[in-house]
Specification:
By secondary structure, the protein is of the alpha+beta class. Strands 1-4-5-8 form a 4-stranded mixed β-sheet. Strand 9 and strand 10 form a beta hairpin. Helix 2 packs parallel to helix 5, helix 6 packs antiparallel against helix 7 and helix 10 packs antiparallel against helix 13. 46% of the residues are buried. Bound molecules: flavin-adenine dinucleotide. Flavin-adenine dinucleotide binds next to strand 1, strand 3 and helix 13.
Length: 405
């Protein structure tokens, strides 16, 4: 191979000596200048309008005006068509939102928003009738209606096919009975995308999705659930007692709800993985600042090789997860359905985010254990990702089974 393969060698000795540019803006080929501008405006909004309240919202959960304000700014419909009030952007715009919302410094807020933008409304857009889109999607994009997604039940989480919530046809209506638990936005939501069983004898072809208004008689918002982290989000236990909905409340094809929700979960997992990478990155940066300032034995702790290597390990983990997310998002954007790679990205990003947050606590020493520094909160918030939207074990099973074993 000729030496021209290495520009650094060619340039040596000339004025154009190439040096590593560690400060270069982190770019990737999937992002354009438009994405960069969007990134800038979401970051500025999150930093100025949300982050100052993050401590308070840990106690109170974040207020509904966040949705209204984000709707006004166009952040709730980034990839939805303009005819529905969206921005007409691509899927990568949603990634930008998931990444930049971490500057609100509130995992619970990021999750509440992501449930609305990337979990509950995508099925309305993809499977909904025009009337359903006008009634639910358009106001959701404006932030005038808040959505939630109901899959999990007290007796069935990982095993979605084991849900018991029943919808039974009665003339022109359906009657719904059952319960859902751990439902994010469940207390504040105006409507729920509800997974039900409509034909218990039809196996995977016996599930149907419904759009249910949360103010209907028989919808009971039971207790607000207390959690390890994500305190700014509201998490509900919901009951449905003889809730009557019209025939046109069916979302998508009757009997195909299981497949519809499996499709939804792919987007949910990918956006969750993007959030994990961004959360880990922010925690890394905060800790890096700390390691440069905090001194021990007469030098900044970051100058100890042990600590430097911790940063190197963390950075490598974050970068590997980021590349998985971006490449998988690119395939998703190009119309593929890369379930295996989405599962891998979700598994890896969730794991490394918890590992990074844990290491950041360690680097902070006692300060890391204190609420004041916020890294313990990142750890508590991130821990959910190894459970929500499909546990690590379920991701491993999906990946393993994809090889035919
Ligand atoms: C804060 C929070 C917010 C949430 N938000 C929502 C929401 O908005 N909407 C919603 O529908 N759900 C939501 N969830 C539910 C979440 O998706 C489920 O908790 C998750 O899918 C796991 O289900 P489970 O809790 O029933 O655990 P289980 O299914 O009971 O699993 C218990 C353990 O068994 C393991 N396990 C189960 N099956 C297998 C298997 N086949 N092989 C190996 N191991 C297995 C699991 O990995 C886990 O370790 C939320 C959960 C939390 C904690």
């Amino acid at each position: 191979m000729s030496s021209s393969a290495s520009p650094a060698v060619d340039a040596a000795g000339s004025e154009n000596v190439l040096k590593p540019n560690f400060g270069a803006a982190r770019k990737h080929f999937i992002f354009t200048e438009e994405h960069d501008q969007l990134r800038e405006s979401i970051r500025s909004f999150a930093t100025k309008e949300l982050a100052p309240h993050s401590e308070e919202w840990e106690e109170t959960t974040f207020p509904d005006w966040v949705f209204k304000r984000m709707g006004e700014l166009g952040f709730l419909g980034l990839s939805y068509p303009e005819e529905y009030g969206g921005q007409g952007g691509d899927y990568f715009a949603n990634l930008v939102l998931a990444e930049e919302i971490v500057h609100a410094r509130s995992g619970g807020l990021a999750m509440g928003v992501a449930v609305h933008t990337d979990m509950a409304t995508p099925p309305v857009f993809l499977f909904g009738t025009e009337e359903q889109k006008q009634r639910y999607l358009v106001p959701s994009i404006k932030g005038e209606k808040i959505s939630c997604l109901g899959i999990t039940e007290p007796d069935a989480g990982s095993d979605v096919s084991g849900i018991k919530t029943r919808a039974v046809r009665d003339g022109d209506e359906w009657v719904i009975n059952g319960s859902k638990t751990y439902i994010t936005n469940g207390h504040r939501a105006d409507f729920i995308v509800l997974v039900t069983k409509t034909d218990p004898d039809a196996g995977y072809d016996g599930f149907t999705l419904f759009l249910v208004d949360m103010d209907l008689p028989g919808v009971i918002r039971e207790k607000k659930l207390e959690k390890l982290g994500m305190h700014a989000s509201d998490t509900a236990l919901l009951a449905f007692q003889d809730v009557r909905v019209p025939a046109d409340a069916v979302l998508g094809q009757e009997g195909k709800g299981f497949y519809h929700i499996m499709w939804e979960l792919q987007g949910e997992r990918l956006i969750g993985a993007a959030g994990c990478v961004a959360g880990a990155q922010r925690c890394f940066e905060q800790t890096l600042e700390y390691a440069k300032e905090r001194t021990a034995f007469g030098r900044p702790i970051g100058n100890f090789q042990v600590i430097r290597h911790k940063f190197a390990e963390m950075a490598t983990k974050i970068e590997s997860a980021r590349q998985m997310v971006y490449t998988t998002a690119w395939r998703h954007h190009n119309g593929e359905y890369p379930v295996r790679e989405i599962s891998m990205a979700k598994l890896h990003a969730s794991r490394i985010a918890v590992e990074v947050a844990d290491e950041c606590i360690q680097i902070h020493g006692g300060a890391g254990y204190m609420k004041e520094y916020g890294v313990e909160r990142v750890w508590r918030d991130m821990r959910l990702n190894r459970i929500g939207a499909g546990t690590d074990e379920i991701m491993l099973d999906v990946i393993g089974r994809s090889y035919g074993i």
